[in-house]
Design a protein that fits this description.
The complex is a heterodimer of chains A (218) and B (160). With 218 residues, chain A is an alpha/beta fold. Chain A has 7 helices and 8 strands; from the N terminus they run ββαβαββααααββαβ.
């Protein structure tokens, strides 16, 4: 299998064994071809502190794409543009319902309206479209009734992979006094850009946001 | 947009959940491309349990995970996700009417649902209870020819 740099250019790696090329099964041929591109996949967490639900991540990616800060001294090799995938993990991606079904959960929330009158927030969430279905129940307003309902039906959440994105490149955001990416990053195919605040056109300053740990959430 | 002196791309940024990108930081990205050649995000259902926390990135074999965890749905749009969930609901009804091996055709789930609803409404059917469910299945079987255009049978031995 070959390797590649962060720009997606294949870099031969002669230490990897070369598999026998399948001849008959088109599916196997396709898999083999993709494998030859050396496209590796990676996994990252999206923190509930910044994205309370997986749907929050999905909405942001639809609007702005995915951007994951990584340590500059630990850039993954083998990522191929358009082939490698970035799997997204959230601490509340997997919903378990031990004593019922999701239909029971929906019915319970709909019954709330019959007892205490319609809550516009609940009505809106029930009607909203969700790509990550469990997020609907995470986004229900916190209340004693919700807690009772979750307890009665045995609802809990666990970490899991809920989506993936195709890797499109690695970017270095220039500091105000820089005009190009540091040599070590440029050599790895990392592209330099200058970030400006969309609303104002002002340069993004290093102190504009509270610093977050590299590789965690950024 | 590009910096006129150094030909550096100027990128207007909106605030994300974690704030603005930090100057001096390196980011892995999935930005999609003009022309829509790359899907921005692919949602998987059910999600794959992953209890081991990683502070940074780790390599994974995603194909292996998708296969072993029996992920049923991989899609890119709200519409396709909704269609998948509808299929889980109405596939059982299709089996009640046509038997095992039947599958609602792609793109026909909404039509199947609406046709079934029309048949039941015209028959004066009212929801409620197991007897009602069995009655609905009987009514739909009697009008199976109206639903037949929405389904296909996997095995060649069965005809619809």
């Amino acid at each position: 299998m070959s390797d590649s740099d962060t720009t997606g250019n294949p870099v031969p790696n002669h230490q990897d064994p070369v598999p026998n090329q399948p001849r008959d099964d088109p599916t196997k041929v396709a898999t083999w071809v993709v494998g030859q591109a050396g496209a590796k996949d990676i996994l990252i967490f999206r923190g509930a502190e910044y994205w309370p639900t997986p749907e929050d991540v999905i909405r942001e990616v639809h609007a702005q794409g995915l951007s994951v800060r990584i340590p500059r001294n630990n850039i993954p090799s083998g990522l191929v543009k358009g082939l490698s995938r970035i799997a997204l993990v959230h601490i509340k991606a997997v919903m378990l319902i031990e004593k019922g079904t999701e239909d029971d959960l929906r019915a319970a929330f709909e019954e709330l309206a019959q007892v205490g009158g319609h809550d516009p927030a609940i009505d809106e969430i029930l009607a909203r479209k969700y790509e990550h279905v469990p997020s609907r129940w995470l986004e229900m307003p916190e209340s004693d009734a919700k807690r009772d309902m979750f307890e009665r039906l045995g609802v809990s959440f666990k970490p899991g992979i809920f989506a993936f994105c195709y890797y499109s490149g690695a970017t270095y955001y220039l500091k105000p006094d820089e005009t190009q990416a540091p040599e070590d990053l440029a050599a790895k195919g990392v592209k330099a850009v200058r970030g400006v605040i969309a609303d104002t056109g002002e340069l993004i300053q290093p102190h504009a946001e509270p610093a977050t740990a590299e590789g965690e959430d950024a | 947009m590009a910096d006129s002196v150094n030909q550096v791309e100027i990128r207007p940024m909106m605030r994300r959940g974690c704030g603005y990108p930090k100057p001096g930081g390196v980011y892995l990205e999935s930005q999609g491309e003009a022309g829509g050649t790359l899907p921005i995000i692919v949602v998987i259902d059910p999600p794959i349990e992953h209890d081991h926390f990683h502070r940074g990135w780790v390599y994974i074999d995603l194909d292996e995970m998708l296969t072993q965890q029996k992920v049923s749905y991989v899609g890119t749009s709200v519409t396709s996700a909704e269609e998948w969930h509808l299929r889980q609901k109405y596939q059982g009804i299709a089996r009640d009417v046509f038997g095992d091996g039947v599958r609602i055709k792609n793109g026909q789930i909404i039509r199947f649902r609406d046709t079934a609803a029309r048949i039941l409404t015209n028959a004066g059917w009212q929801p409620g209870g197991m007897a009602s469910t069995m009655q609905a299945a009987r009514i739909l079987r009697e009008h199976a020819e109206e639903l037949a255009m929405c389904v296909e049978v996997k095995t060649s031995s069965k005809q619809i």
